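Interim report to the steering committee. The following record documents the input for Lrp/AsnC family transcriptional regulator (158 residues).
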Amino acid sequence: MAEDFKIPSLKVDEIDKKIISILHEDARISYTDLAKKVELSRVAVQMRINHLVENGVIERFTAVINPAKVGIQVSAFFNVEVEPKYLESVANQLENEPAVTSLYHMTGPSKLHMHGIFTDNQEMERFLNEKLYAVKGVVSVDCQILIKRYKSRMGMKL
């Protein structure tokens, strides 16, 4: 029965992996330049990328912003314990908060792991008091502030 819920995987060959790797480094590269790097025609590369997008392998192309360059000084990770019956409603409220950059349901029946970014500690404190602690069903919050980033996922490498 568990196999009914299995997400079908798409066969990704070595050329697709190379294309994804190059796009991961520079998503703005032209089809022509990418084609030269993987030794295919521009049309073949475009078709492969379209196929990867249509099948959900590539979810989106995006710009990665350096938070410090736009005044974001505080990056924090939160473990939020929630009463089980409120888990979905709490997650739905938090996912719509602009300060929340990622939100995951973690092991355990009522744990949410969240990342948030703030201009300063005062903004984070307002978020905690006015947004997070005020949500019905939140039992406790553990917060850790980022000191230094060594690596960030920015997409999966194959």
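The first strand starts at residue 74 and ends at 82. The committee is asked to note this result when reviewing the revised timeline.
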